[in-house]
């Protein structure tokens, strides 16, 4: 065999040995190294917790509140926006200037155990310089069945589910919190408020904490015997025991929490020319 051929064979053998060694060592390392933490992008590969009760206090250092951190606190969550921020152990959501709808804030869903009765409570505070504009969605609420929102009243009347949330609303002379409900018995195009507001006269204030609480009970069959109760600071704002949430057994249960924080409405008069901040704390939910 010529020298050049032998040299090539030797080089080939060395390369083959190095390749085999690298493979063997990497295989061993894979067996002994610590598991890689699953990031939010990979979360679909691992089931997250689904809680029937939970208390989230946002007791974390100041900084970005990531989707992975939110999943650790809430459980199975979708649509979380990494613009969320922890400020002095409160959750702070930024509302963009000159943007209405979900693109200007946050819209997320937390998966919770299916239930016929739920109690939910959280605290909300508007920044001291917050521009009320015309109004918007004010935080946590309940997803019923498929969770109808977005002025899709026909879907609610068809029995596909509903939702139970809160808005802040500015009439020009007063600013208040009001219920915003989709249900199978609704007659309008968008969410029902039932004419209820907090306070019943006068306005809410910037820089003040308000505690919002919901009680939900599903209706049975096609009966109008479901319950929707909204409290603010312990005061009953709305209590209805004649709600038909859905005429479908599969769509009448609470299946998740909505976290809706944005300006709107859908028309430009709901918008604001300035950036706004809304703060949240002490979220609790209990399946009853």
Which secondary structure elements does this structure contain, and how are they paired or packed?
Blueprint: H1 3-32, E1 53-56, E2 63-64, H2 67-74, E3 77-78, E4 85-87, E5 90-95, E6 106-115, E7 117-126, E8 135-145, H3 153-157, E9 161-170, E10 175-182, E11 210-217, E12 226-232, E13 235-243, E14 254-263, E15 276-287
Antiparallel strand pairs: 1-15, 2-4, 3-6, 4-5, 5-15, 6-14, 7-11, 7-15, 8-9, 8-14, 9-10, 11-12, 12-13
Low-confidence stretches: 1-45
Task: Tell me about the largest β-sheet.
Answer: 9 strands, antiparallel
Please state roughly what percent of the residues sit in beta strands, choosing from under 5%, 5-15%, 15-25%, 25-35%, 35-45% or over 45%. 35-45%
Distance from first to last alpha carbon? 85 Å
Task: Please bin the fraction of helical residues.
Answer: 10-25%
Overall 3D shape: globular
- Class from secondary-structure proportions: mainly beta
| SSE order | HEEHEEEEEEHEEEEEEE
- What is the tally of helical segments? 3
Number of strands: 15
**Gyration radius, rounded:** 26 Å
